[in-house]
Amino acid sequence: MMKTVWSFTELQCYKFFGFNQEDQKNWKNARKDCQKEEFGGNLVAILNKRVQAFLTFHLNKFQSDVWIGLNDINEDQMYLWTNGRGVSYTNWEKGFPLSYGPNSEDCIAMTSLPYKSAGLWRNSYCYYNKGYICQANVHPKYSFLPSTTPEQRFRYRNSSYFIIEAKMTWEDAKQSCERRDSSLASILDPFSLSYLWLKLKQKRIVWLGLNSNLTGGQYIWIDKFRMKYTKWAANEPKQKLGCVYMDLDGTWKTDSCNIKNFPLCKYPKVFPPTVPPQEPGNCPLAVEKSWVPFRGHCYHFEASSKMSWPKASLACLQLDASLVSVMDTAEANFLTEITENLESKSQAFWIGMFKNLNGDWLWIDNAVVNFVNWNTGEPSSQNDEDCVEMFASNGIWNNVYCNSYLGYICKKPKIVETVPTEKISENKESRKTDVIPSPTHNKAIIVVVLVILIVSGAALTGFYFYKKRNQHGSIEENFENSFYFTGGDAPTTSDGIDLVMNMEKNEQATN
Length: 511
Prior knowledge:
- By secondary structure, the protein is of the alpha+beta class.
- It folds into three domains: 5-142, Mannose-Binding Protein A, subunit A (Mannose-Binding Protein A, Chain A, Roll), CATH 3.10.100; 153-267, Mannose-Binding Protein A, Chain A (Roll), CATH 3.10.100.10; 292-413, Mannose-Binding Protein A, Chain A (Roll), CATH 3.10.100.
- Helix content is 21%, strand content 22%.
- The protein has helices spanning 27-34, 49-58, 170-179, 190-200, 309-317, 329-339, 439-469, 493-510; strands at 3-6, 11-17, 42-43, 66-71, 80-81, 107-110, 121-124, 131-137, 154-156, 159-163, 183-184, 206-211, 220-221, 243-246, 252-255, 262-267, 292-294, 297-307, 322-323, 348-355, 361-363, 387-391, 397-400, 406-413.
- Strands 1, 2, 3, 4, 5, 6, 7 and 8 form an eight-stranded mixed sheet that branches.
- Strand 17 (292-294) and strand 18 form a beta hairpin.
- Helix 5 (309-317) crosses helix 8.
- It starts with a strand and ends with a helix.
- The chain crosses the membrane at residues 444-466.
- Keywords: Calcium, Disulfide bond, Membrane, Secreted, Transmembrane, Transmembrane helix.
- Belongs to the true venom lectin family.
- InterPro entries: C-type_lectin-like, C-type_lectin-like/link_sf, C-type_lectin/snaclec_domain, C-type_lectin_CS, CTDL_fold.
- Residues 9-135, 156-266, 294-411 form the C-type lectin domain.
């Protein structure tokens, strides 16, 4: 689908490619595709902030970086656009551009993930496959003219936005929006910011629903959404107690709540999902590993020590846990809230899903697969991509090779403390007390089982390869987890341990 945007001097047409991995190309092939006769353009040149905002808004559909036309292929650090234009505007990510001499990362991509950095530019090797954006002049037979009638309301996703055409204080602006069954707008990601800034057309300074007067100095959205994304101007926020407006350049600034700006309202009033209540029980004390409670389970997030899927599975087993299974949207959102803060250490995390010989996707803890959160086009049919990663920035899933090195998430039930009950016999001589096995006791059992399995690992590994070579042979279908076993019973925890040990032995054999 063609997208158009009004530039300062002319209309340009933009086309977006590579939403799915199989459609992505390296930089040179992407450029050739843009130059084909039916399009007659080139890789996009971003010459001003308005074009940048338009393109950033459309990055919300991508799960990978996208190629733009900027490069220094001919001379190191001499960046040019593929259409021959010089560089008058830049939007580099912190730490870029790079300078490594010849044969370095000479082509420039625009980030789509993590979403907090969406739209920023970074160097990349030109032979990597990525999405890409083509640009061409609009054909004279088409007449795309900007509307001279301003829109009263503009819609983005599930909300519509509008400006009240009267300047007022922040509190008056808040009440004016509420009288219209709306609220002062919250801006939760760079895509909605880009969209709103384009719609406002640099003509209004507007109040946002961000305030610290009501919360003891902490800036919080008045609709209670978590503040995951910010666009503060330089040296902001500079006031401990104040109200926030969006300036003409799209950045956020603080000022006295008594100055007057236009209200930017958001309709309808939307509030964040209710946090599920915690269930009874406790998580282990953070001695060596920290655990985060959610509903009836405890979660350990490991971002610093990256490892393969089988090694991550073993690491969780040694904690009397398993790689995480994800049961619903609430749990997926909980995991993402944690991982997005760990993204600088690991861009993706292992979860406990794997593919068995029948091609079924299963959880290693034998939980029922009744919820999935696959990326667009996933799971792919690529051979041997049998394990699943979760992107740190958005919680989306992707199947990858099991020997990739990633962070991982462990999950185990909370420890439920019960009050001992005493049964007194008629002669009051015998007493019985209910005892919950301690985590240390369970860990000892796991260690013993692991030792036994290490001894028998060679035989199990041989059986795994035999099954791999005979995938079309007869396989029992009367149990859930047929990854490595032919027995008729449903898999137990030890089946999961066997699975991990086999993959671990296989990995060691190939190293």
